[in-house]
Design brief:
Elements (H helix, E strand, L loop, with lengths): L7 H8 L6 H13 L6 H13 L4 E5 L5 H9 L5 E6 L2 H13 L7 E5 L2 H4 L8 E6 L6 H11 E10 L15 H15 L3 E6 L5 E6 L7
Helix pairs in contact: 2-5, 3-4
Amino acid sequence: MAPTPIDSTSWTFADTYVDEDDVLAAARARAAEVGVTPIGAGSGATLRFLASVLEARAVVEIGTGTGVSGVWMLRGMRPDGVLTTVDVEAEHQRLARESFKDAGVAPQRVRTIAGSALDVLPRLTDGHYDIVFADGDKREYGAYLSEALRLLRPGGVVAFDNALWHGRVADPAQRDEETVAVRDLVQQVAAAEGLVPVLLPVGDGMLLAKKEWVPESD
């Protein structure tokens, strides 16, 4: 049975269902100043919900931007939770720290690391994290998945933004490098043993996958 299409009015209503406050509005203004495209309100609310359900204590973010997604996740995490966020642009991270300060986040709750994700992630602790959220270079999404599966504890969740990539992933005629990389990731996650995936039509698409618990052998 074919699903009932969602009209644009209902989609907008759902995607903006959770309001953003002045802190997030200011973070978005900073993003506009430096040409960063942050996640939408619906995607942010999804991340906050995920962090809250998992009672996340340790989260890795690939792509700090100006702190929009970080603020959303920190608001869902445990009060003692720590966000480790990685970005190649140190200036973006400086602006993100302003956003975190506006949100009343204690400095010790955020660890900003400037550098390439594929240089930084191998230095992080195996099996320590509740969530790995990727919103970085789409061409590196497959490599991010490999690192995320190492970093996540059993029961943890990896999340990828832009999983529909402006409608291009679902169109097989679109063969540019970024689209192919995201499409390959979506297919890889769907086929992977030990992952429980879901692809949500929120924002530009949010791909989530839970790392399953592996029974201990006798």
